[in-house]
C-alpha cells in the first residue's frame, strides 16, 4: 500500500469515528472523550486520522455498540484499483 493510500484510509477511519460521535449526539469530541473515559488527545488524533491503534478503535466501537466488521463494511475504499 502506498503511503498516500494509507493516509487516506486513516482519514476515512477518522471521518467515520467523528460521524459516529455526532450521530450519538455529541457535538464536542472533548465531552465525548471525557464521558467515555477516553484520552481527549488520543481521541482527537483518532478523529483527525493521525493515530489509531486497533485497541483504541475497538474501545470506541464498543462505546457505539458496533463491531469491527460493521465499522469497516461501511467505509469507502480510498485505494484505487490501479
Note down, in words, how this protein is organized:
This protein is mainly alpha-helical. The chain has one domain: 434 Repressor (Amino-terminal Domain) (Orthogonal Bundle). The protein is 65% helix and 0% strand. Helix 1 crosses helix 3. It is globular, with a radius of gyration of 13 Å. The mean pLDDT is 91.
Element-level helix/strand string: HHHHH
Please outline the major beta sheet.
Answer: none
Structural class: mainly alpha
Number of strands: 0
Strand content: under 5%
- Outline the low-pLDDT stretches: none
Looking at the overall shape, the CATH architecture is: Orthogonal Bundle
Overall mean confidence score, pLDDT:
91
**Cα radius of gyration in angstroms:** 13 Å
Helical percentage: 55-70%
Q: What is the level 1 CATH name?
A: Mainly Alpha
Q: What is the name of the CATH topology?
A: 434 Repressor (Amino-terminal Domain)
Shape label: globular
What distance separates the N and C termini?
A: 12 Å
Number of domains: 1
DSSP summary: helix tally: 5
- By CATH, the superfamily comes out as lambda repressor-like DNA-binding domains
